[in-house]
Amino acid sequence: MEVLEAIKTRRSIRSFKAQPIPDEDAVKILEAARLAPSGGNRQAWTFIYVKDPQVLRMVKNCSPGFYGNAAAAIVIGLPGGGRGIGLLDVGFAAENICLAAHALGIGSCPIASFNKEAVKKVVNGPEDWEPILVISLGYSDGAPRNPAKKPLSEVVYLDAFGKKWSLLEGA
Amino acid sequence: MEENIGERFFDVLLRTLNYAMEFVNDRGYASLRFMDLFSSLLELQPLIKEMAHEEFYERLRNKIKEREIMGAQVSRAKMQSELLDLFLEEWRRRSSQK
Q1: pTM of the entire structure?
Q2: Residue A141 sits in which domain range?
Q3: Residues of chain A falling short of pLDDT 70
Q4: Which of A11, A13, A167, B34 satisfies CB 3.0 to 4.6 Å to B20 for a cystine?
Q5: What is the distance in angstroms between the Cα of A142 and the nearest Cα belonging to chain B?
Q6: Domain at A80, CATH number
Q7: Closest to B49 (Cα-Cα) out of B5, B80, B96
Q8: ipTM value of the model?
Q9: How many other β-carbons are positioned within 10 Å of the β-carbon of residue A19?
Q10: Cβ–Cβ contact A62 with B under 8 A
């Protein structure tokens, strides 16, 4: 799948089929995460791939924003709690994960609403480490509706804030 | 089926605790209300015959009794964290038996 096509067609998936993700595909998704940009090339992130049903169940129990019976999840964490640019790095990696999964026909949903203390304990996170984001993964159980997106003309300005770009009128 | 209802009850109770923890630092009563719901669910447990004698839930009830002063946010957060530890301990114990 072309990158632009993947960006256009990716959706957050919250309902999944009971179908496991092949390990080879999981590794491809994690490889995409590893290759994401990071500030100063620090790569301070850690990715915990959760596929054990009992561990996954507990991650879900501790994540109010986790919907659907996902086949797996990735917990992305940073040392020292993640502040400043580290959080952006996690965002870059998360987008790579979602796009790579989508390119492989696997749905995903980033989840920020989770109990950090609990998830950290569930995955045996070390003292100086904090989970920042959870991403659920699995095969979509149906086609999610297209979310409304603001038009380009509403969110893009040319050269200065508030200066409209005529090219984008109606776009 | 017996194991299923036990597991499902455990999950619902733990999720309720996590909802309470999510709001513990917010102004308002959301966290307190979820803890009320948590306690109410916990009171149902002895009435469910498949799991009427599970000692784990008695430990949770005792923990709540130990900390009856629920007014201060700090003590509520601490109690929630202690309840969470009991859940994780129990989950690990059950997992090791499977």
Answers
A1: 0.89
A2: 3-168
A3: 81-82, 171
A4: B34
A5: 25
A6: 3.40.109.10
A7: B5
A8: 0.81
A9: 11
A10: yes
